[in-house]
């Protein structure tokens, strides 16, 4: 008799459904958070534990193996330009859709439960005090080990790239260093496979706590906003990213199917970090060079948040409509420019989407207090925008590999179809 095997995606889906059931049955019961939150936090901590060693080791091996500082500088410039173009398209799309569908019209905030957002306010104020020069200076770490402890990804990437170039520059003497970090990266990928075995439990716990907390009432009250955000994200994923994928020789639906395990896990946990190691591994199997994957994907986690900026544009106009504030064309152009800057400058802080919105709303005259009303359903929208962020960064690595003439689309498609 043939054994029935349940793959990771099936196990995660079962965990997701069971978590929703627990949240609905024990809605607003504090015991759900008491018992399940530690389990969810444990899974997230396991993931965070392995992400930084993988980024450092793969980036050093990739850069040292390339050994060409000029080529790497060109890749960096192209990557940043690509990120800026795609995120700008996402912001403009969000503003157009919010203007067409008016999700904030006829919404009564009095019927929506208010959520405390003071921690986001404090973070926003501390970040706004930083000048542009300070933001760029922050990328250069004064203490690399402190950056590792704080999980400061941009500073970690900066040091790892420089170190990799240094290893490449010393030639034969650098080979033992490359071998060491190559062994570290392979060992860490085995650790990832071990951690992924508890992913369904982590998803079950995190979803159970979320559904138990927010309930159905607030979702119905803000249903128009949630519905538009989901529709906008699906449109961006299929149409905008679909066109980019077509240029790269990839079918967007084939790519989504290839990444189904990672996308379902990212959706369930609202965290792209949980799948970063597996996504990097899958991209390398497709034929994308290690040097490009290890650089583009981690930096995209802070500079290429397509789903997040699309949501931020819609949410800003939603609140303006709720408060009856009619924004002029110039104010909306200001909103685009501000989002372009703040979404990059605050990328490394916790609760980025809310912090960026807080920093943005004041520039167009919208009361920031309105965010307290949509905070209750933010997790539901965060799940979908995480999927778009993840897909956008995966596609970016393929695009950059092709632009460097180092990607074979036929081989990549064969790998994706094989699963």
Automatic annotation (TrEMBL):
GO cellular component: plasma membrane
UniProt xrefs under InterPro entries: Na-dicarboxylate_symporter, Na-dicarboxylate_symporter_CS, Na:dicarbo_symporter_sf
Subcellular location: Cell membrane
Residues that span the membrane, as ranges: 7-27, 47-67, 79-101, 153-171, 198-216, 228-250, 287-303, 355-377
Gene Ontology MF terms: symporter activity
Signal peptide residues on this chain, from the entry's feature table: none
One record GO biological process: dicarboxylic acid transport
Membrane-topology annotation of the record: Multi-pass membrane protein
Pfam families registered for this protein in UniProt: SDF (PF00375)
Keywords: Cell membrane, Membrane, Symport, Transmembrane, Transmembrane helix, Transport
Predominant localisation class: membrane
Entry protein name: Glutamate:protein symporter
Species in which this protein is naturally found: Rossellomorea marisflavi
